[in-house]
UniProtKB/TrEMBL annotation:
Cleavable signal peptide: 1-22
PANTHER family for the chain: AMINOPEPTIDASE YDR415C-RELATED, METALLOPEPTIDASE M28 FAMILY MEMBER
GO molecular-function term, one example from the UniProt record: metalloexopeptidase activity
Domain Peptidase M28: start-end pairs: 267-459
Superkingdom of the source species: Bacteria
Keyword Hydrolase: yes
Keyword Lipid metabolism belongs to the record: no
Keyword entries, A-Z: Aminopeptidase, Hydrolase, Metal-binding, Protease, Signal, Zinc
Protein name: M28 family peptidase
A Pfam match: Peptidase_M28
Length: 494
């Protein structure tokens, strides 16, 4: 009996642990990469910093070691992504009514030009309320003028609530300048901080007015009062659903210098060449960037290390690459570590605009982001569920690896907040598959605590069990979708 029991025990131990040691991804594998990428030495991996240089070098080295070949356009690992930052420089301005200069007893104004120098005289000022009507269109005549816009827009239609959407609508309507008014509820400090934070943009996709900026309510009241108008009445009118704006009888003169910093960041791109040319490709992606030095100078910990977001995703991609490189697949398999996701999926958009092989060839794109959340045995959710014809196939592969399926579409709340969205906009079947978005209470707990703060660090408590299982799932998905006998695609016309 004892011997027999021992034998059974041995079989169980071997049966369970040996195969997973042989090919499964472990927490330790992932932890080693995260420890480097999320270390203070990498300074939070902000694009354009020394932290970027260290990050993209580490990824390229690890991917080379894993067996990938460099696949950027020039044959290197690094596909340049031209980015731009604008910062406040010296500025002078005056507002004039009926030929006299208005005296404004406030200096709560921030002005940023599209170009390094902006000089203009007699620019008419139009108050536009929230900038758009209830149908989302611009009602005010802003063409060649300066639009003053209320920042807060509770009454705006859903797709026009964001200041960015309203700014772009006003620019499309011909506005030369767009200045937001940091209306009530302490919005001015937020607006001011945003403008002074030198936000990163992808210049090829940016829609900017020649002059942009913000003023406080105090400044707006002083301006409007000096021109003989009543701010409260003006604002009350602007709350009407079909407010079409009013010319204020004010002209403005500007001389605005702007610090412009253009730099190339990098998407890291690697590849496993398939056996069957022209049979399509599987694409894995995940963003390498995070927020850099993110806390005030006097904080004890100033670095947003981004261990979960998204060192964990890069760790998974690297381990998946290493396992998939062990055999030759039918289809090509690409790996892309994107830049500037945190600034609005910029690296992914840049890739979608300038891919290294035709986007139509992608049979599935799998994004991996913020993956160290759930423990082992979590269900598998699909972000993008219902947007492609792949759900059933992905689920079947997941079930084969022993995973249960979360079949609700709740995870789709995150669909626009991840890099796959940039590819989906161009018709690529783009999904995010895994456990971290299956238990949304757990995800919300992270989003409400360490997320985007100095505490997103690697600790003994960092949960990597689910990420390891998700890595195994991504290996299984790669093995399946890169196999032309298992996953067949019918091309149009065939
Ligand atoms: Zn993030």
């Amino acid at each position: 009996m004892r011997l027999f029991l021992r034998a059974v025990f041995a079989v169980l131990v071997l049966g369970i642990s040996v195969p997973s040691l042989a090919k499964g991804v472990s927490e330790t594998d992932l932890r080693e990469h995260i420890a480097v990428l999320a270390s203070d030495e990498f300074e939070g991996r902000k694009p354009g910093t020394e932290g970027e240089a260290k990050t993209v070098k580490y990824i390229a080295e690890q991917w080379a070691k894993a067996g990938l070949k460099p696949a950027a356009g020039d044959g290197s690992w690094f596909e340049p992504v031209p980015l731009i930052q604008r910062g406040r420089g010296e500025a002078t301005y005056s507002f004039n009514a009926k030929g006299r200069k208005l005296r404004i007893v406030s200096d709560e104004i921030v002005l940023i030009g599209k170009e390094a120098e902006y000089a203009k005289k007699d620019l008419p000022v139009v108050f536009t309320g929230i900038g758009v009507k209830s149908d989302g269109s611009v009602g005010a005549d802003v063409s060649g003028k300066l639009a003053l816009v209320l920042f807060e827009a509770d009454n705006a239609p859903a797709k026009m609530k964001s200041p960015r959407a309203r700014r772009e609508a006003l620019i499309a309507a011909g506005a030369e300048g767009v200045i937001f008014v940091g209306d009530s509820q302490g919005n001015w400090p937020i607006l001011r901080r945003q403008l002074l934070s030198r936000p990163i943009g992808l210049e090829s996709r940016e829609k900017r007015a020649k002059l942009e900026g913000a003023i406080s309510t105090e400044f707006a009241v002083a301006l409007v009062t000096a021109a003989g108008r009543d701010w409260d009445k003006l604002r009350a009118h602007a709350k009407g659903a079909d407010y079409t704006g009013e010319a204020l009888g004010i002209d403005a003169d500007f001389n605005v210098m702007t610090d412009i910093y253009r730099f190339n960041s990098s998407n890291v791109i690697g590849k496993l060449s398939g056996k069957k040319k022209g049979s399509g490709a599987v694409l894995y992606m995940g963003h390498w960037d995070h927020l850099g030095i993110c806390a005030p100078d006097d904080a004890t910990d100033k670095i947003c290390n981004g261990a979960v977001d998204n060192a964990s995703g890069i760790a998974v991609l690297t381990e998946v690459a290493q396992r998939l490189a062990k055999k030759r697949h039918d289809r090509d398999i690409y790996f892309i570590a994107t830049t500037a996701e945190e600034s609005g999926l910029l690296g992914a958009y840049a890739y979608a605009d300038k891919p290294v092989f035709p986007l139509e060839d992608i049979v599935i794109s799998l994004n991996v982001d913020t993956i160290a959340i759930a423990g082992r045995n979590s269900k598998v959710a699909i972000i993008g569920r219902g947007t492609t014809s792949l759900d059933a196939t992905v689920e079947a592969v997941a079930r084969k690896t022993g995973r249960a399926i979360e079949s609700s579409t709740d995870a789709n709340d995150f669909i626009q907040r991840q890099d796959g969205w940039a590819l989906a906009q161009k018709g690529v079947p783009a999904l995010m598959v895994g456990g971290s978005f299956a238990d949304l209470d757990l995800m919300q707990k992270f989003l409400g605590s360490d997320y985007h703060g100095p505490n997103d660090e690697l600790t003994d408590q960092t949960e990597l069990g689910g990420a390891a299982e998700d890595a195994d799932l991504h290996i299984a998905l790669g093995n399946y979708f890169a196999d032309t006998r298992k996953y067949k695609v019918t091309k149009a016309g065939e």
